[in-house]
């Protein structure tokens, strides 16, 4: 066994307290490196991590001193190179470049991508696509939480070619992938974003842009624009109760679907009770409501990689890139809620 002096160490972002990132986060510079993997685990030398709004909730609200998550590492998405595999691993091999995201169990236990080396279940990652089709650093969001959420929201809505899909929050991490996947499937995409992001969302493939800042209230504009209830699906990636409550004014009566991934401060409890359980006779909205919660999986990341290979996803848009030492600034950028695509942290060179 290595003596403490020779034991390999890594750098990782952890916390000792809850609070805003600037108060809570600290860069641990001599954290013991994960031991050789057992079972179905692999060691990944992390190249890039990317940030998600959920991180801010964990940093602010989940105590780091709980016994099962002491010294937690943050960051749900990562990509990098496999440097060791457990004896049961069949999904990947040493030297392969992979990308993926943490599942609920890993998040709860405080295992995150903002570390130079991480030990994870091989089932959480997938081989990255050909790097000529998508740069490695762009896979970290596309195959991570944002891309997987977009993919699974689209699947749960059953989006088909020829349908008209409205993506609310089309310029964000989830929305920018949702626009591309819907377009790749052959749907007509209406992107809702601010005017400053109109060109960006159009460039991702949206057929029509609606500037939510220019048309207030947005729901009144949608009721005029889609007077004949032309919308088949609404994918809400920004979190709007009004958009759902007013949906009978523009969403198809037969087969129209509303799917959101935003649960708000109550973590979905209030919208679920209000929108899912309340009968129409008591003021409920006569359109199906689905609140989607991702459980990240490597097979979802694999499907995204496949979409990239087929040219259905052309970009993993990056809002900004930060060095590993500047994770706090990266989280502060995330907290503005204004990111166009993903905020990426460079953990090590590719
Ligand atoms: N349930 C799940 O499993 C799950 C998974 C992933 C994400 N989420 C949630 O989904 C939401 C989106 O995540 P994200 O990663 O895409 O966030 P994000 O990248 O931080 O979103 C930022 C984007 O949202 C746009 N935006 C802000 N307010 C808007 C509004 N009222 N209407 C339209 N666009 C607006 C901003 O554009 P402007 O600056 O132009 O306004 C910006 O481009 C978050 O609430 C997140 O917590 C849930």
Automatic annotation (TrEMBL):
Organism name: Podospora australis
Q: Name one GO molecular function term.
A: oxidoreductase activity
Q: Which top-level group of life is the source organism from?
A: Eukaryota
SMART domains from the entry? PKS_ER
* PROSITE patterns given in the database record: QOR_ZETA_CRYSTAL
Ranges where the Enoyl reductase (ER) domain occurs: 24-345
- Which Pfam families does the record associate with it? ADH_N, ADH_zinc_N_2
Compositional bias ranges of the Polar residues kind: 1-18
Protein name stated in the entry: Enoyl reductase (ER) domain-containing protein
Give positions of region: Disordered.
Answer: 1-21
Task: Write down the CDD domains for this protein, in alphabetical order.
Answer: MDR1
Q: Which UniProt keywords apply?
A: Oxidoreductase
